[in-house]
Amino acid sequence: MRTTAETDTATAGITGEAPVRFDTKIAVLLRDDLEPWQRLNVTAFLVSGLGTAAPEVIGEPYEDAEGTPYLSMFRQPVMVFEGSKETLTAAHGRALSRSLPRAVFTSDLFATGNDRDNRAAVRAVPTDQLDLVGMLVHGPRNAVDKVLKGARMHP
C-alpha cells in the first residue's frame, strides 16, 4: 500500500509536476538473437514473478471514469534491455554476486508447456551452464545499472 507521499508523488507526473524518480529499477535483459514473439513471451514470464517476491513494487488497482475496476500493475516502469549471450551470462553472474532478486528464462523453456516442466528444466542445469535467453533483475538503481553493464536499451 502506498503512503500518501508516494501517491502524491506518483500523481505529480499526471498533473504536470516533476516526474517521479524511483530508488529501485526493474529491468529485463533479453538475448539479442530472439524472435519478436520470443522477446514478448520471455518478458511476460520474467516480470510475472516480481510482484509476489516484492509486493511493494505493485501499485493500487486501476479504475476508469465509469468505475470499472482493473488489476494493479507495477508502480514503476519496467526497463527492457538486450545483449549478446555473453552479456546475459555476465549480467547473471553480477546479479548473483550482488544477491539481487532475479528471474531467469532459459532456451529449454521454449520446449515446455507448463510450470512444473519449466522448473524441472531449469533445475536440471548447473548455474554456470544455463542457456539464458532472458533475465529479470530488481534492486537499487545503481546496483541494477552495474549488473546491466554492456547491455543496451531494447529498440
- Sequence of secondary-structure elements: HEHHEEEHEHEHE
Spatial arrangement of strands, main beta sheet = 5-6-1-4-7
Give the number of helices.
Answer: 6
Helix content: 25-40%
> In percent terms, what proportion of residues is strand?
15-25%
Sheet having the most strands: 5 strands, mixed
Rg result: 17 Å
Specify the structural class. alpha+beta
Q: How many distinct beta strands?
A: 7
Write a compact overview of the structure shown:
By secondary structure, the chain is α+β, with helices and mostly antiparallel strands. The chain has helices at residues 4-15, 36-48, 50-53, 85-97, 115-123, 141-147, and strands at residues 24-31, 62-63, 69-70, 78-83, 102-106, 132-140, 152-153.
Give a structural overview.
This protein is an alpha+beta fold and 155 residues long. It contains six helices and seven strands, in the order αβααβββαβαβαβ. Mean pLDDT is 90; it is low at 1-9. It has a five-stranded mixed sheet with strand order 5-6-1-4-7, sandwiched between helices. It has a two-stranded antiparallel ribbon with strand order 2-3.
Which SSEs are present, and which pair or pack?
Elements: H1 4-15, E1 24-31, H2 36-48, H3 50-53, E2 62-63, E3 69-70, E4 78-83, H4 85-97, E5 102-106, H5 115-123, E6 132-140, H6 141-147, E7 152-153
Parallel strand pairs: 1-4
Antiparallel strand pairs: 1-6, 2-3, 4-7, 5-6
Notable traits:
155 residues; 7 strands
